[in-house]
Amino acid sequence: MSTVDALYTQKLKRSVFHAIRKYLVNIGYLPDILLYQALSSTQNYINYNLALKAIRDAKGFAIEVFNHNGNLKRANEKIPRISVNFRKTDAGDIGGDSRPFYQASSVDDYDRPTSYTSIRRPDTYSVWTFDIYLSAETSDQFDVLHSVVANVLPKRGYIPIYPDSEPILNIVHFGSYQMPTMDMGITEYIYIYEMRDIYEPSDVIGGEVSPINDISLDLIIESLDNSQNSDEINLP
């Protein structure tokens, strides 16, 4: 069975997160977090929150995005918000040959590899299910949130895998539902998506294997020498 690499899992989650984040930055509802990379720095943290306040003052509200599902503990200052929640993985409809094959151990020695690694591909691809939580208090906020989802995530189509720009991740809108109004006046609307045909990383199933340097005919020649008195020679 194929083992899912933790870094690969994070890459899939971040692909959805950053697709939404970039769009929010482009339409002016969120500061670009990449400009505040060192948020451990007190000044950068202050600057980011000042940028959020400037957006709220200009537009009436800012929209933050999180890579986990909504939680009331974030309180009203985090409303409206969009949250991405990956919740399960199922077997897909397609697969491949799970027998081991051999690949050059280093990308630098494909022309003249010094060793090969034995690898097995998964026999079944995966389907990942994730939810998009829209949390808001007013219809005006929900209008913008729904617009963001509609422009970023297709009903059936492709999005880029982070940090690349080529759209290769196949996603399908699977359904939606609305949570009842909560005690704090917050309503949540949830979109359900499937990320299909996910090829999870290959398993390394063996150590390194030395390449074949040459093929010798010594055994065939020796067989011929030992069969001089025979009317018929059977080559091995």
Describe the structure.
With 236 residues, the chain is an alpha+beta fold. It has helices at residues 6-26, 42-59, 139-152, 218-225, and strands spanning 64-66, 81-91, 101-104, 116-120, 126-136, 156-160, 167-179, 187-198, 203-209. The strands form two sheets. The chain has a six-stranded mixed sheet. Mean pLDDT is 78; it is low at 72-76. A hairpin with a 6-residue loop joins strand 6 and strand 7 (167-179). Helix 1 packs across helix 3. It contains four helices and nine strands. It has a domain at 6-17 and 67-213: Phage tail protein-like (STM4215-like, 2-Layer Sandwich), CATH 3.30.2000. The chain is elongated and about 95 Å long.
In short:
By secondary structure, the protein is of the alpha+beta class. Helix content is about 25%, strand content about 30%.
Q: Could you give the order of the helices and strands?
A: HHEEEEEHEEEEH
What is CATH's topology name of the domain at 6-17 and 67-213? STM4215-like
Overall pLDDT score: 78
Q: What is the count of helical runs?
A: 4
CATH class of the domain at 6-17 and 67-213: Alpha Beta
